[in-house]
């Protein structure tokens, strides 16, 4: 269709649609030499646990894929390159009554369009505490929880998800807000949400990778059409972070069944061309692909050493 006709009808560009992260990831790794395509978790049905009590009486936790800052593990600051040293491999937890410095240098967020200068975009604890103070939720659980980002489905399903469930049950959690950042993070939280729901805990995922979440069939999903790393709202925009959490809480209350997706009305920018960049092999030179392959192999060795340790 011609551009004049697009203008006449008010059509958006074809690329202004949710980024196809699964296909982008397959094409990207094939282009840098990994010919066996990754098997993304796929289900056609999802469990569903309605809230057992009104949200204003419910105890809510956060499950995040962000990592606690460790000054011994290299550059983890804003704009840091992918840092395999900062990855974690076991579930962790933190006291929600304290401040925490969580970062995302260890995962594949959108480094071109995300500054990573505001943890409020990937760790919505400040907004959840405000919701509790306002009576929107009953209370924030004593602990939040960190979910390791594993490419291994078996590790997530057999080890990490049961451990997260055990800790949630110990804290008498009624509902969990899960916040992924990278593509595999989205799969991780999808598998964890399914496990929690099968065992009586209502969940909602706040995320940016619509295809990955819906492919895995989750109970509830709030989709923000933002670059990866901004699942909880725009950086340095408290209003957008508050609105994003409110939409997630509303979805917890109102979803009538599983596989319910709500899309945030917020737009990242008027120019949607940012969606063309993330791991798009069509925009990468052979030299850049070779450089990325070498760096990926180097980071894999670092991460392998950390896992063994």
Strand content: 5-15%
Largest sheet: 8 strands, mixed
SS-derived structural category: alpha/beta
Low-confidence stretches: none
The tally of beta strands, per DSSP, is: 10
The geometry reads as globular
**What is the terminal-to-terminal distance?**
57 Å
Mean pLDDT: 94
Number of helical stretches of at least 4 residues: 8
Q: Give helix % range.
A: 25-40%
Report Rg: 19 Å
Q: What's the SSE pattern?
A: HHEEEEHEEHEHEHEHEH
What this model shows, in words?
This is Glycine reductase. It comes from Bradyrhizobium forestalis. One of its GO terms (molecular function) is oxidoreductase activity, acting on X-H and Y-H to form an X-Y bond, with a disulfide as acceptor. This protein is an alpha/beta fold. It has a domain at 55-263. The chain contains 8 helices and 10 strands. It has helices spanning 3-9, 21-31, 125-133, 153-170, 183-198, 210-216, 238-254, 286-308, and strands at residues 59-64, 67-68, 92-95, 102-103, 139-140, 143-146, 175-179, 202-207, 220-223, 260-263. The strands form 2 sheets. Strands 1, 3, 5, 6, 7, 8, 9 and 10 form an 8-stranded mixed β-sheet that branches. Strands 2-4 form a two-stranded antiparallel sheet. Strand 7, helix 5 and strand 8 form a beta-alpha-beta unit. The N and C termini lie far apart (57 Å). The model has no long low-confidence stretch (mean pLDDT 94).
């Amino acid at each position: 269709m011609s551009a004049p006709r697009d203008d006449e009808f008010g059509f958006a560009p074809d690329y202004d649609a949710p980024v196809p992260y699964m296909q982008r990831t397959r094409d990207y790794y094939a282009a840098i030499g990994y010919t066996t395509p990754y098997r993304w978790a796929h289900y056609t049905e999802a469990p569903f646990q309605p809230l057992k009590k009104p949200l204003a009486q419910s105890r809510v936790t956060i499950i995040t894929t962000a990592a606690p800052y460790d000054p011994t593990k290299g550059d983890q600051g804003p704009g840091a390159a992918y840092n395999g040293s900062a990855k974690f491999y076991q579930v962790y937890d933190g006291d929600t009554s304290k401040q925490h410095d969580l970062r995302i240098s260890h995962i594949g967020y959108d480094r071109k369009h995300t500054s990573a200068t505001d943890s409020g975009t990937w760790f919505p604890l400040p907004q959840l505490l405000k919701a509790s103070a306002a009576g929107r939720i009953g209370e924030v659980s004593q602990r939040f929880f960190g979910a390791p980002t594993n490419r291994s489905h078996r590790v997530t399903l057999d080890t990490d998800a049961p451990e997260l469930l055990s800790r949630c049950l110990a804290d008498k959690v009624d509902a969990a807000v899960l916040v992924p950042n990278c593509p595999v993070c989205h799969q991780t939280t999808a598998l964890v949400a399914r496990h929690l729901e099968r065992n009586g805990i209502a969940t909602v995922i706040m995320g940016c990778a619509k295809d990955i979440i819906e492919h895995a069939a989750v109970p509830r999903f709030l989709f923000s059409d933002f670059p990866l790393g901004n699942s909880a709202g725009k950086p340095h925009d408290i209003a957008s972070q508050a609105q994003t959490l409110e939409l997630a809480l509303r979805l917890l209350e109102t979803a009538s069944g599983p596989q319910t997706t709500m899309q945030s009305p917020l737009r990242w920018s008027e120019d949607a061309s940012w969606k063309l960049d993330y791991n798009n092999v069509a925009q990468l030179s052979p030299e850049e692909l070779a450089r990325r392959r070498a760096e990926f192999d180097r980071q894999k060795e670092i991460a392998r050493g950390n896992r063994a340790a």
